[in-house]
Amino acid sequence: MVGQTLIQKILAKASGKETEGVVENEIVFVSPHRILSHDNSAAISKTFYKMVGPNGKIWGPEKIFIALDHAVPPPDAVKAGNHTVIRKFVKDQGIKYFYEGGTGICHEVLPAKGHVPPNVVILGSDSHTTTHGAFGAAGIPIGRTETASVWAIGETWLKVPESIKIILDGSLPKGVYAKDVILEIIRQITAAGATYNSIEFYGSSVKKLSMSERMTLSNLTAEMGAKAGIFPVDDVTDEWNKQFGFQYDRITADEDAKYIKTLELEVSNLTPRIAKPHKVDNVVPIEELGKTTIDVALIGTCTNGRLDDLEIAANILKDKTIHPNIRLLVYPASQEILLQATREGILEILVAAGGQIGVPACGPCLGAYGGCIASGEKAISSANRNFKGRMGSKEDTGIYLASPATVAKSALAGYITAEES
Amino acid sequence: MRFKSQKIWIFPEDDINTDVIFPGRYTYEPLTPDEMARHALEDYDSKFIEEVEEGDIIVAGNNFGAGSSREQAVTCLQAAGISCIIAKSFARIYFRNAINQALPLVISPECSDFITKNKKNLLSSKEKIDVDFDNGLLKIKDKVFSFPKLDDQALQIFKAGGLVEYTKTRLKKST
Ligand code: SF4
């Protein structure tokens, strides 16, 4: 057997080829451990019934995960009706893992509810399904029709990707976070630089990254076109998994596994990074960004809406008030996080500083509801995309991506900054 | 497969993302393909939807269809009449979505450059474009460009007319 990368091992296992292994570019058929979808489940269910007929049944009701998050609570009757279709589908098909609106963002809820053991394939009808690589799984994004087909037949074809190795060494300086690291990686690899590839993370810094920070990194591998972004299982993963009692082996890539590219990054001297409009790889060190005033600051999303993110922001905003020209939007990524933040007094600080707290969900991240920006306005956001029109307006607008710390500091200053005011 | 090049839409920019092809504000509304077509590329080129005609072709740069996995970014162009997209490269999920909807995609940096450079005279002569998917060949004027053929599995889905038809057939076979 030729040397196997992490993704090769995971795909070999999922396709019943563990003994012989798989080679790059080979087509394999895999059955997922879970298949994730969200508000798009209504559209997927329509396609599903086209495939199986009006009385057709789903292949694995206990394999399907649906969380309502993209328009929660629904801002209008059309989006509310979309949820109605999903609830009926869930009932009709006896889908086991359905999470009502308000539980949280799909990529947060899936692992937190114990659906992501290591070494499995998670398919998801959402591009940031790569997030689940943080847990040592292969989180692979697919489209709606393909999801419908997996619901119907229980498997899909995948091409075994080539892999990229990213080695992170050193310790993060004060004020610099996982988000800054991944933005720097995207700057170097570019928006298309990992298309069709699987990314693996190694190095001395990785061992120090929490599960939450790993999720931020894996989440953003999608913005380089990656098929997956995986952290090998280590002590940190084992510790996280204890709560679920998962049984598994630690899979590691073989010594002689092949990588098409290796990127080494020493993080000790990194400064905060900003992705300027309208591309995620349009990244600059904050010191190179001219004075940029903003109107909206968003803390939340599946990239950076976790407890540690809210806490970092709260530490900056404690006993302070945001700039009068700013609206600070805070969307905890899940109900669990919201509860925790309430208990720990984090929420009180954020509200006292002038923050508007939203229901745990995607919020304005995709521009459908919940705090869109008007034309002529600019936003700084802890999300993963700064595409034109993404937060609502497409006219004379711009979204700047940054860490929650930089977002909080900018909310105080009224312009983008990593200095504490 | 032969396309009459009614009109060629040239978007040479890299990384044209699915948010500008089909804006997020419409993604959670149940729309028909024709309704989706009305929003095709509206955040990128507002002329597109007014002027696009059945059979038009899009020629693009690198990483066309980056970003969100939303399939409407394929469906809306298809419903708007786009018969084929030729790009230097496509984003992975976009490429899969297109196969699943049987929208022909051609990966050819040379062809993308050639058409972009020769736009004027290609349009005036209403040049035909021949695309042979079995052999991965594209002919325009006297030039022949080769492009990577689809893998067997993808080709089967494409030839079935998309994944809905393919899965239907598979389910029939298994019962
Ligand atoms: S938070 Fe934003 S990026 Fe994450 S799943 Fe929701 S819309 Fe997508």
Q: Which structural traits does this protein have?
A:
heterodimer, A: 421 residues, alpha/beta, Aconitase, domain 3, 2 domains, five-stranded parallel β-sheet, 18 strands, 30% helix, B: 175 residues, Aconitase, domain 4, four-stranded antiparallel β-sheet, four-stranded parallel β-sheet, globular, binds iron/sulfur cluster
Explain the overall architecture.
- The complex is a heterodimer of chains A (421) and B (175).
- With 421 residues, chain A is of the alpha/beta class.
- Chain A folds into 2 domains: 6-265, 2-Layer Sandwich (Aconitase, domain 3); 276-413, Aconitase, domain 3.
- Helix content of chain A is 30%, strand content 18%.
- Chain A contains 13 helices and 18 strands.
- Chain A has helices at residues 6-14, 41-52, 77-93, 106-112, 144-153, 178-189, 211-221, 235-241, 301-304, 307-317, 335-343, 346-352, 404-413, and strands spanning 27-30, 34-37, 64-67, 97-99, 121-124, 138-141, 156-159, 163-169, 198-202, 228-230, 261-266, 273-275, 283-285, 296-300, 327-331, 355-357, 378-381, 398-401.
- In chain A, helix 2 crosses helix 3 and helix 2 crosses helix 5 (144-153).
- The longest helix of chain A is centred in the first third of the chain and has 17 residues, at 77-93.
- The relative contact order of chain A is 0.14.
- The mean pLDDT of chain A is 97.
- Chain B has a single domain (2-174), classed as Aconitase, domain 4 (Alpha-Beta Barrel).
- Chain B is of the alpha/beta class.
- In chain B, strand 3 (57-60), helix 4 (72-79) and strand 4 (84-87) form a beta-alpha-beta unit.
- The longest helix of chain B is centred in the last third of the chain and has 12 residues, at 163-174.
- Chain B has 9 helices and 8 strands.
- Chain B starts with a strand and ends with a helix.
- In chain B, 38% of the residues lie in helices and 18% in strands.
- The mean pLDDT of chain B is 91.
- The interface between A and B is large, with 52 and 43 residues.
- The structure holds iron/sulfur cluster (SF4).
